[in-house]
Design brief:
By secondary structure, the protein is mainly beta. It has a single domain, classed as Lipoprotein localisation LolA/LolB/LppX (outer membrane lipoprotein receptor (LolB), chain A), CATH 2.50.20. The chain contains three helices and twelve strands. The protein has a twelve-stranded mixed beta sheet with strand order 7-8-9-10-11-1-2-3-4-5-6-12. It starts with a helix and ends in an 8-residue tail after the last helix.
């Protein structure tokens, strides 16, 4: 997997899943990372139950689509019209994901996701880039602590800071998103990664010359 593509996938999963019961309001935004240093910006599109993420400055253009209802991810490679799709249930449920059912009580969903009571605290009201948010601190399964700001109107985390990463959503544009953003074009071919790996293992070694 290309390094930047792998980073894009990792960044998506860091947007984790607090609740998927009620979809966030649809919008698009720029995902700007402050940590780690040198991390690429991304464009994010949020639909009713799907999210699309495109990292900027890629040598090989690609984007990721998350199907939250099925907890499934797809990596799409437009240059060769192929895509890679994960089995259903492969989006980790133990990492909080940014769609929040109740911005005023996000701790309950967080503690269910990490299966640890009393690991989340509601700090209080705050404003991020002019938007009304609720600020929370929490502890993950690994013991890492972090802070998240939940946008009251979008019901979505628009800023987060942790020990290893920090980012926020900027230039938020509210409004319905085109359904085509979250669909894989019909003429794209699915790549079977498992079969490709097996074929490489079966490939005979080149003859040695004495």
């Amino acid at each position: 997997m290309p390094r930047r593509l792998a980073f894009a996938m990792t960044s998506v999963f860091l947007l984790a899943e607090m609740s998927m019961a009620a979809g966030a309001q649809e919008f698009s935004a720029e995902l700007v990372r402050q940590k780690p240093a040198g991390a690429a910006k991304s464009k994010i599109y949020v639909g009713k139950s799907k999210i699309r993420l495109e990292a900027e400055g890629q040598t090989r253009p690609n984007y990721v689509i998350l199907n939250l209802a099925q907890r499934q991810s797809s990596m799409v490679l437009p240059d060769n019209k192929t895509y890679i799709i994960s089995p259903p249930g492969q989006i980790p449920s133990s990492i909080p994901f940014f769609m929040i059912d109740d911005p005023e009580n996000a701790c309950a969903a967080w503690e269910r996701s990490v299966q640890k009571p009393k690991t989340c605290t509601r700090v209080g009201d705050d404003t991020v880039n002019g938007r009304s948010t609720v600020k929370y601190t929490g502890t993950s399964n690994t013991g890492d602590t972090g802070t998240a700001w939940v946008d009251r109107k979008l019901r979505f985390v628009i800023k987060w800071e942790g020990e290893k990463g920090a980012a926020e959503l900027q230039n938020i544009q509210e409004g319905p998103q085109a359904a085509s953003l979250f669909e894989i074009p019909s003429d794209y071919e699915k790549m079977d990664i498992a079969a490709a790996r097996a074929a490489r293992k079966r490939k005979p070694l080149p003859p040695t010359h004495k």
